[in-house]
UniProtKB/TrEMBL annotation:
The gene is Glyr1. Keywords: Chromosome. It comes from the Eukaryota. GO terms for biological process: transcription elongation-coupled chromatin remodeling. It is found in: Chromosome. Residues 1-23, 80-176 are annotated as: Disordered. One of its GO terms (cellular component) is chromatin. Coiled coil: none annotated. Its main location: nucleus. InterPro entries: 6-PGluconate_DH-like_C_sf (IPR008927), 6PGD_dom2 (IPR013328), 6PGDH_NADP-bd (IPR006115), GLYR1_PWWP (IPR035501), HIBADH-like_NADP-bd (IPR029154), HIBADH-related_NP60_sf (IPR051265), NAD(P)-bd_dom_sf (IPR036291), PWWP_dom (IPR000313). Belongs to the HIBADH-related family. NP60 subfamily. The lineage of its organism: Eukaryota, Metazoa, Chordata, Craniata, Vertebrata. This is Cytokine-like nuclear factor N-PAC. Residues 80-132, 149-169 have a biased composition (Basic and acidic residues). Residues 1-53 form the PWWP domain.
Amino acid sequence: GKLGRYPPWPGKIVNPPKDLKKPRGKKCFFVKFFGTEDHAWIKVEQLKPYHPHKEEMIKINKGKRFQQAVDAVEEFLRKTKVKDQASSHNSNEEKNRRNSSEERGKQSTGEEKRKASLSEGKLKKGTGEGKKRVSSVSSERGSKSPLKRAQDQSPRKRGRPPKDEKDLTIPESSTVKRVMTGTVAGFKWPPSVSEPVKDSDPHFHHFLLSQTEKPAVCYQAITKKLKVCEEETGSTSIQAADSTAVNGSITPTDKKIGFLGLGLMGSGIVSNLLKMGHTVTVWNRTAEKCDLFIQEGARLGRTPAEVVSTCDITFACVSDPKAAKDLVLGPSGVLQGIRPGKCYVDMSTVDADTVTELAQVIVSRGGRFLEAPVSGNQQLSNDGMLVILAAGDRGLYEDCSSCFQAMGKTSFFLGEVGNAAKMMLIVNMVQGSFMATIAEGLTLAQVTGQSQQTLLDILNQGQLASIFLDQKCQNILQGNFKPDFYLKYIQKDLRLAIALGDSVNHPTPMAAAANEVYKRAKALDQSDNDMSAVYRAYIH
């Protein structure tokens, strides 16, 4: 389903910097991407030869940045071909002798050295979008180092010792032999759907965050495609987890899943849980919202207590702290269905005090509790591309693995209950403040006689370029404020983030200013519109 979501990208294998450790696990190569000059470790199964797939990839991706990358490949190949021709007549005899003796031994390594295109976050380098799949090394170190891959795999290299990239053989369309023994120019490619994928959903990352006394942070990631180790302020290791899927599909848990709350976020989540084969029982305060999901195969729960009592793991996604408390503590609420072993996962964005209180009452009844607020919007929810921030019961977090893979692209485990609530509020504080700033800039452009469209074009060419910026500006320019993230909820998150700052005497003046603008927008009846409707608070 999600495979091939992003286009492939051309690059070549180069020598990594000496101080960069090679990831453990499956064989991978250090790749330099054309056009962007970024580097990354890429596993062999993600590599495809350049020439056989060139035309196909150009058809897939019409972007200017991609075309520039292809042009860079062609220029690199042209220069190398000229140099190869100039020197090849001196070494043909020796080359033929070695090729005949080494060809069989290199057959498999040639396959491993094929280059290809990365279908993940590296493709969105320009916008910073995409999923964190690889550890990118932006320095130019190693970009001109001799390619030692072939030397590692065969007793001898071709006729001359390489001094830098100019001496490395680039594959032409003639034969695989040349691919085996030198730099490979090609596309980084998503795994073929026909290939068995031994990990879970290929686009899902699962981070287990352990906070130590040191500033260092340790991530263990369940990611599908590769293992990466990176050195930053502390030690960060990303390691692949056990497999749960074949051919990129998710193996759903056999546990019975309950879901309470079918709003903008909950609806997309439930739809994806059902699509991936989970058994789901749903409940919503207004029951008619359940009808569509019943048609898709969900079961109907009459009360929250009934859902919890009949399911193994019950998720909830409601609007605010009051709704979250009422759902648990109210009549026929969650708490009445809790008994030892029952699991409750609250995905609502609330404050740390609220979620801590809910955790305590659930656990006091013998239940297991996990907070798991999500970063995203209706579109990302529908696409199964949410970012999940979890904290609480670590075992329950792992039991939710297939569910999180169905609904999200990345999951973080942040430790004890309350941590996810705090982190989520900070994330939404930044997002809400940025949205208000976008609206402020667009309205200032308008009143000073500047083109709003031109402002957007300029921003999209700069370092602020992002899907969020573009979509929200488009909403404003088109006057389309259909909710993707309710304005009233981003204001609620700003309010809670400011209160979080108050609790530790930390200033939040930017959030406070943005909050005032959203409050004005609410007074102008924009609560049930998208957050981009904060624009209307600036119109005189």
